[in-house]
Amino acid sequence: MIKVLLHKSFSALMALLVLFSTVSFTIEKHFCGDVLVDVSMFADAEKCEMEALEVLLKKTCCKDEIDVFKGQDELTVSTFEDLDFEKQQFLAAFTYSYIDCFASLPKQTIPHKDYSPPNLVTDIQVLDQVFII
């Protein structure tokens, strides 16, 4: 029970680790002067009213900042054959010894499991007057 639970939770954790290491996203910020007007993660940041006036006046007080967080583009997949011979030998020996630790014992059969002893009518030790001293 606990082994299955640990296996499932470890698998989910590894899947989330791969997911978060490969995800890329951008954060867009719009400043009007030194004041932060809008921050957006998935869409364009909203512009302020000064942006429309800048076109007429040709003066810029607004600026946009874009922060890009890049994840991994490629995952490296290495095989058993990529390892050198000593590491292959160590890994094979470790795996064999680790699996051998958890080999289950054969199920023992109890031949007299359903045997019920006969009812005692008299105490034989008292009848024969044989006692362990």
From TrEMBL:
<protein>
    <submittedName>
        <fullName>Uncharacterized protein</fullName>
    </submittedName>
</protein>
<dbReference type="InterPro" id="IPR058512">
    <property type="entry name" value="DUF8199"/>
</dbReference>
<dbReference type="Pfam" id="PF26622">
    <property type="entry name" value="DUF8199"/>
</dbReference>
<dbReference type="InterPro" id="IPR058060">
    <property type="entry name" value="HYC_CC_PP"/>
</dbReference>
